Fold this sequence. Notes:
The chain is an all-alpha fold. The chain has 5 helices and no strands. The longest helix is centred in the C-terminal third of the chain and has 32 residues, at about 105-135.
Amino acid sequence: ETPHLIAAMLIVGGVVLLFVDRFAPAPRYEDPTRIPMPVALGIGLFQCLAMVPGTSRSGATIVGGLLMGVGKRAAAEFSFFLSMPTMAGAFGYDLYKNHDVLDLSAMGDIAVGFAVAFVAAVVVVKWLLNFVSKHG
């Protein structure tokens, strides 16, 4: 996880997003709830690219969706759907990994932080989806 790798991947990710935005195939799927299972699995495999430090998970899944014929808004929305179990799993794993340093008094702080982060995420996702719908 060197800073050079992270910086390089951030640049590569941005260039890939610009390239795919310009040259992606015509969308065949505009409703994220109607994406066929093989396409959904392919998008999930693109999410694996985020294991490389500096690679955006949402960027990777949106690129995967666009390359597989998903419309921009649907790709962004599906990316957020896909993030929910991923983030919940990461949160659970982090709690498990650090259970020895947590005590019951910290649980209230964790719950408040979780709730605030959830509300902020909902607000940002709604704003971003509206932005993508209007500006592409």
